[in-house]
Design brief:
Number of strands: 0
Structural class: mainly alpha
Largest sheet: none
Number of helices: 5
Radius of gyration: 13 Å
Shape: globular
Oligomer: single chain
Helix content: 40-55%
Length: 108
Amino acid sequence: MATDWAADVKKHVTNADDDAIAGIIRHCGIALRSADASMVSFSDKSETDRVKKNFVMKKLGITDEAEADAAIADVGAKLKSATRRYRPTVYYMLADHFDKLDLFKKKS
């Protein structure tokens, strides 16, 4: 799969941070090797619950489930017109929403 994850993020987020994008791509790791796993289905409740539990709550440290659900719904609405909702783009937008992009930047 030859997808330019950074280009997709930048298509949806103006002035996206390259270091944060690279960190999110590293975080996604092996999931990006499968076409199905590389995308997020906002119409699949089990998928959005997985994003909430494993990324928003576990990785970003957000403890308020209602706040997490609202952020996921907001990102889903912003990507509604996108043909494909790639995991790195969704994760970037969620991390940006919660001002947590620094978690993905390499420490110098």
